[in-house]
Amino acid sequence: MASEGLAGALASVLAGQGSSVQSCDLAPAGEPRVPVRLRKNLCYMVLAVFLSEQDEVLLIQEAKRECRGSWYLPAGRMEPGETIVETLQPEVKEEAGLHCEPKTLLSVEERGPSWVRFMFFACPTGGILKTSKEADVESLQAAWYPRTSLPTPLRAHDILHLVELATQYRQQAKHPVILPQELPCDLVCQRLVATFTSAQTVWVLVGTVGMPHLPVTACGLDPMEQRGGMKMAVLWLLQECLTLHHLGRDHSDGICLNVLVTVAFRSPGIQDEPPRVWGENFFWWKVMEEDLQSQLLQWLQGSSVVPVNR
User: Fold this and answer.
1) Is 174 in contact with 106 (CB distance < 8 Å)?
2) Angle at which helices 290-302 and 2-14 pack, to 10 degrees?
3) CB 3.0 to 4.6 Å from 220: which of 3, 28, 159, 306, for a disulfide?
4) Matching CATH topology for 11-37+178-301 and 43-171?
5) pTM value?
6) What's the CA gap between 81 and 160, in Å, rounded?
7) What are the extents of the domains in the chain?
8) Cα separation of 165 and 305, whole Å?
9) In what order do the strands lie in the sheet containing 308-309?
10) Cα–chain-centroid distance for residue 17?
11) Which residue has the higher pLDDT, 307 or 7?
12) What is the structure's pLDDT at 305?
């Protein structure tokens, strides 16, 4: 029964879905568990890439004093009580004049757990493109530009990589459609699909406290984790067990990212089995279902994931 439940949970994650966080297997040491709150100890940003059939990119001209006149992708800050998608759609309407629907998450950027930006590939569904006659505090105007001939000055050149990601996804999607699931969570945390592979065999790390489950590790908000980024929480959980050397609608502003990790460490003298797990809180589950094995190997070999960047 436990194996069936694990297989279902793993299949759900590989399909781009999520589940509620009931508890964490590892929380930051020495930190009280304080729920995260937008505008207090947390900031989420959203950004959208639009590509036309003529290979044009939708850009907006900034109205903010510090970058007035420069060009950028439609973007904005999430406010308390909003969901991620609810933030994206009005931002695009205010800055570009268009209604939209997100197609998939393209990338996640983090500057430590307290600042996370979600980048989407989106498509317009209506509205009228904003002109210079409608300039306001949100933007001066919006326009479509050829992907290979963007206007200057750009507010920042980080959008070039995102436009390229969207182009690649449209040409050949490497990952399934992934959109935020609206599930309550009061921490910034990560659910790990920690894998060990040998030949065509795949093991997945499993937590044992309560029902067997994919491990969840919470991110701290102290200065060291801000500098090290969200990967610190992943490394601490792996070190703990292997001894290696939104969302806002329900007043819970946390997120849980499903994160794929591959463990390269091998125990001395043992090459074909995963490293020993210390303690009783974790074990390696050998994935026997052929379709799940195939999906995991494909994801690992083809980097078929949404990247998390700093």
Assistant:
1) no
2) 40
3) 28
4) yes
5) 0.86
6) 31
7) 11-37+178-301, 43-171
8) 12
9) 75-77, 43-50, 115-127, 98-110, 308-309
10) 12
11) 7
12) 66
